[in-house]
């Protein structure tokens, strides 16, 4: 198999690529893996169409690029009937264990709605995620695009004064902040304890390319040393800046797409879809490295 990667949009030659002709069920040679990883460094988002894969195949493909995240605490509230998928798979579907669609009254559904806010996966963990890989096993007939924002381009486009201002700022990220933003505040004491804020730098440098990017997410709800209203309004301004249309690729899903993104240089969000239809999307997530060793 030879790997060819090209930009999805001629108008945006450096953000969001696609890799045609690859079969992710097959094992990859070291040079194929290196080519895909180089594609990720360059494009930050890669789309692989027509990948009718199993969970095991998705896990095997993901492991070419690092270790799966191994956090014990869940990043969501439990769904009716218990987990639907096995270890290593994050269930981003709107389905209960028995395959029926979640009730609109379900806490698990309220919690999932937070995915509609711009974020970077696991930014609320001490070691935020490297790559996420999302496989579409069933899609809704309307809506549900996943949008990606290029946080390198967003950083580059800041004016010099703002670049200097953000350079050494540290934010606090928590699921409590992103859920609070949509009015979901009835968290249990155990959830509040599990979702204690972690610190992340506002500017990060890509370990391979050396490019700087803004490390933002709706999970970011405070800036260390700042008064809360000032922090919130600044973070809101920065997210608005970073998600201008020119920095965004909107992925319209087709069945069996697999989309892989680098959380270190992007934010993403899902758009509205018909909640009465099954949307079965399954994620594997690769562990990243802690950016701030000492938390608290
Ligand atoms: Fe996400």
Secondary structure: helix percent: 10-25%
* Poorly predicted runs: none
Share of β-strand residues: 15-25%
Main pleated-sheet profile: 7 strands, mixed
- Tally the helices: 8
**Structural category:** alpha+beta
Q: Numbering strands along the chain, what is their spatial order in the largest sheet?
A: 1-2-3-13-5-15-4
Which of globular, elongated, flat, extended, rod-shaped describes the shape? globular
For the secondary structure, the number of strands is: 15
Calculate Rg over CA atoms.
18 Å
How far apart are the first and last residues' alpha carbons, in Å? 47 Å
> What's the pLDDT, averaged over the residues?
96
Q: What small ligands are held by the chains?
A: fe (ii) ion
The SSE string, one letter per element, is: EEHEHEHEEHHEHHEEEEHEEEE
């Amino acid at each position: 198999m030879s790997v060819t990667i090209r930009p999805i949009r001629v108008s945006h030659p450096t953000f969001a690529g696609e890799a045609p002709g690859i079969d992710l069920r097959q094992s990859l040679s070291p040079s194929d893996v290196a080519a895909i990883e180089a594609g990720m460094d360059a494009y930050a988002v890669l789309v692989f169409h027509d990948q009718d894969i199993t969970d095991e195949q998705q896990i095997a493909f993901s492991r070419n690029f690092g270790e799966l995240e191994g956090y014990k605490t869940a990043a969501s509230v439990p769904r009716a009937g218990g987990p639907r998928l096995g270890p290593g798979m994050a269930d981003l579907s709107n389905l209960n264990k028995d395959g029926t669609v979640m009730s609109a009254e379900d806490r698990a559904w309220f919690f999932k709605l937070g995915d509609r806010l711009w974020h970077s996966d696991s930014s609320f963990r001490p070691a935020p995620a490297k790559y996420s890989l999302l496989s579409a096993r069933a899609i809704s007939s309307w809506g549900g695009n996943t949008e990606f924002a290029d946080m390198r381009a967003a950083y580059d486009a800041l004016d010099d004064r703002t670049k200097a201002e953000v350079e050494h700022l540290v934010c606090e990220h928590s699921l409590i902040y992103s859920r609070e933003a949509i009015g979901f505040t009835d968290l249990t004491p155990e959830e509040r304890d599990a979702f204690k804020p972690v610190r992340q730098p506002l500017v990060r440098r890509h370990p391979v390319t050396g490019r700087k990017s803004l490390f933002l997410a709706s999970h970011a709800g405070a800036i260390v040393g700042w008064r809360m209203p000032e922090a919130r309004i600044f973070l809101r301004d920065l997210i608005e800046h970073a998600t201008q249309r020119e920095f965004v690729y909107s992925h319209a899903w087709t069945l069996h797409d697999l989309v892989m993104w680098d959380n270190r240089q992007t934010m993403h969000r899902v758009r509205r879809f018909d909640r009465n239809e099954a949307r079965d999307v399954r994620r594997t997530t690769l562990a990243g490295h802690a950016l701030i060793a000492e938390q608290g």
